[in-house]
Amino acid sequence: MGAPDYILRMRKHVGHDLLWLPSVSAVVRNAAGELLLGQRADDGRWSVVSGFVEPGEQPATAVVREVYEETGLDVEPVRLSSVVSHPHSYPNGDRCEYLNLGFHCRLLGGTARVNDDESLAVRWFAMDALPALDAHARTVVAHALADESAAWYLPPGTTWTDD
Fold first, then answer.
1. Could you tell me which of 146, 143, 152, 126 has the C-alpha nearest to residue 29?
2. How far is the C-alpha of 68 from the C-alpha of 88, rounded, in Å?
3. Three-class secondary structure of residue 82 per DSSP
4. Which of 16, 24, 66, 89 has the greatest number of C-beta atoms within 10 Å?
5. CA-CA distances (angstroms) from residue 142 to 68, 108, 114?
6. Using an 8 Å Cβ cutoff, are 48 and 141 in contact?
7. What Rg, from alpha-carbon coordinates, does the chain have?
């Protein structure tokens, strides 16, 4: 699906300047314990399935929609696992600061496949054979799969780093 119309309209006014945007990420594993990843069309990196929360949409609804749009899979959010703000720059020069809500999701059904133009590939990976993931994806995965009862967040006074 790409960027929603409201973001494209904002970009006409602000160009490549920084936008503050709500987003969601999904950590999904299959019955074999493999992790679902998508290869991003914009930069070729592997990552957890992520996307924008659209105006008027609840984050849990957005994560279900994004996973289906990008992979053809049906999921159910089980737990909000992380909340973090992180910057991102796109190859075209657009800059964003995402407020990202990470969800641990249960797979309900479907067959993983590229379902839109945002992904080059969609694949299940064994946990001991993951491709290189950026710091944000590693953080989302770690906290979604951890035995934590509350969502993880950076402590007050700290800022995001890609380390």
1. 126
2. 23
3. strand
4. 24
5. 22, 22, 25
6. yes
7. 15
Residues 6+ apart with CB under 8 A from 94: 11, 16, 19
Residue type, position 82, single letter: S
76-131 residue pLDDT tens: 999 999 999 999 888 899 999 999 999 999 999 999 999 878 889 999 999 999 99
Query: What pLDDT sits at residue 1?
Result: 57
Q: Which residue has the tokens 């992180």?
A: 86
The encoded tokens of residue 109 equal 């059904």
DSSP H/E element including 122: strand 119-125
Q: Are 7 and 52 in contact (CB under 8 A)?
A: yes
| Burial per residue of 15-37, b for 16 or more beta-carbon CB atoms within 10 angstroms, e otherwise | eeeeeebebbbbbbbeeeebbbb
- Asked whether the beta carbons of 151 and 81 are under 8 A apart, the reply is yes
CB atoms within 10 A of CB 72: 16
**Number of separate helices (H) and strands (E) present in the chain:** 3, 8
